[in-house]
Amino acid sequence: MDFPAVIWQVVGHYAVASLADLELLSRAGLRSVLDHPLALAHAPLEFRTYQEAAAYISKKVLGGVRKLTLESTCSQALAHLAASAPNLQELDLGQCDNLRQLTALTCFRRLHTLQMRNCNHCTKFYRGLRELTMFQCSPIEGDLGNLQKLKLNGCVVNHISHMSPTLSSLDLHNTSWVDRLDKMTVWGYEGGWMPDQLYELESLQELKLAHCEFVTNAFARSIGHLKRLRSLTIHGCSLTDFAFIAELPNLQDLDVDHAFDWTVFRSASLRTLTLPCQDLSNLAMLKSQKELRMLRLRWHNAMFLLGPDLSAELGQLLPCVPNLHTLDLSYWGEMQGLPVCPSVRFLAVDGCTIWDHNFATLAKSFPNLHTLSMAYTNITNAGLKLVPLSVRHLRIRGCNITDSGVHALGKLPQLHGLDISGCDVVRVVLSKTVKLLALGNNLHLEQSHLLALRRRRVKIVNTEQFQTTLEHLTKSSF
């Protein structure tokens, strides 16, 4: 085995992604390994500032770094970073809230992926970028002709002169276009790319639209022209006519939060589906979706009361979708009498009316679960004894669980991730298999317990980060 491969096993495999990891490796006598130019080339490094990175990584090594995350920076520091890390390809400035000028980004010759936040001068630095993610940025101006993926969240677009015809992914969340003359949000100004020109993006495969005023029924005609579109998400928009779905021959993944005519599914073959359900009789229309692998049913009034018991309708549907891998039934009623579904690996029943006695029946219906989320249910310590042994990730946030219940989870031989935020837990005794733990703010753990977890390299996250991890696992399983 050559030296770079050894470095990757020693360093990269353990994800040198924080100052603490670098200190740990230094104390272990591996500083000579870290000082090799190839040591951290592909490891995702995270630092609070550029100065911190320069202090703990030699210039020789920093020159080979490909991926870097900074929590705070400024234009001057970016200029220094460009000179010190000429091979940088991915830069994450998503936590930097003090950015004002980004002209220094033009100095990164090999940068192709950028994430940034709260910059008020986002103009003409995009050049060689292929992936761009921006949060709360404005005004956005320039040529985006080289991009393959674009995500704008809470941004204001002043003038995009050119959008890449090879763009494969577009994500617009609470984003608007501003007229250059009167600075008012308008629909349509001459001279720049506008969303109603969406039909030009013939290579688009993924489209996400959320809380954008321009997404109307008239706008939907542009979506119907995207013949290569495979994934579509529409949330919080005034669009109600989804007839264009029948015009998308390659659509596989659909996620909407609007009620619409389900008859459009007769001409679609979907892989994943997330949608609200008002009429339980509509579930019969999904029997034709033989390739369906993920189903998320949202009770349309979930914020105010639980949905009805849909066990009878599910009992007829589930045998018709033999490839179903993920099932999310959060905030419905009581689940009982469901058929055995050995294909289901990911199950979410958050907020449902589930007690220990009917959880026993539910567990028998899904014997091969990999991930189980049952937050805010009536499960107690006794119910945890019925969790299938195959479970690797378990979410019991807000349940009536105490120390003894968590300790009893040691019987799960493959348990890797656990979310116990909101539980009445004081002393955390975990099995050695657990490497990811979500804790709530109301937990007052002894310092010795936290230190013991960190020595075991247990990653402690909040419940939102844990949920994001579960979502990534679900997507990667397809």
Detailed description of the structure:
Residues 1-19 and 180-190 have low confidence and may be disordered. This protein has helices at 3-10, 19-27, 31-34, 50-56, 59-62, 75-84, 220-223, 311-317, 356-365, 381-384, 403-408, 447-455, 463-476; strands at residues 45-47, 67-70, 90-93, 113-117, 122-123, 131-135, 140-144, 149-153, 156-163, 169-173, 176-177, 206-210, 231-235, 253-256, 272-277, 294-299, 326-328, 346-348, 371-373, 393-395, 417-419, 436-438, 459-461. The strands form 2 sheets. The chain has a 19-stranded parallel sheet, with helices on both faces. The chain has 478 residues and is of the alpha/beta class. It contains 13 helices and 23 strands. Among the domains are: 1-109, no CATH class; 120-260, Leucine-rich repeat, LRR (right-handed beta-alpha superhelix). It is flat, with a radius of gyration of 25 Å.
Brief characterization of the structure:
The protein is α/β, with parallel strands linked by helices and 478 residues long. It is 20% helix and 20% strand.
N/C terminus separation: 33 Å
The top-level CATH class of the domain at 120-260 is Alpha Beta
CATH homologous superfamily of the domain at 120-260, by name? Ribonuclease Inhibitor
- Count, helices: 13
Q: What would the average pLDDT be, to the nearest integer?
A: 82
How would you sum up the major sheet?
A: 19 strands, parallel
The general outline is: flat
Helix content: 10-25%
Low-confidence stretches: 1-19, 180-190
Supply the CATH architecture of the domain at 120-260: Alpha-Beta Horseshoe
How much of the sequence lies in strands comes to 15-25%
Instruction: Give the structural class.
Output: alpha/beta
Q: What's the count of strands? A: 23
